[in-house]
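Human: I hope this is not a bother. Would you mind checking the protein record under this note? Thank you for your patience.
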Amino acid sequence: MSPALSTIGPELNVSTSDVSWIVTAYLLSASVLTPILTSCPASGSPPRSA
């Protein structure tokens, strides 16, 4: 991902530092939300037995 930041930034008219912060925020939110969302039952699925 790091080599691509220097290409992605100018394409979106943002600095490499800004792109780095966006990637960091995405990875942090994904790491927090993944366990939460995977523990939620899918709609339409039968309830788990205890």
User: Anything to note?
Assistant: The helical segments are 2-11, 16-39. The longest helix spans residues 16-39. The radius of gyration is 18 Å.
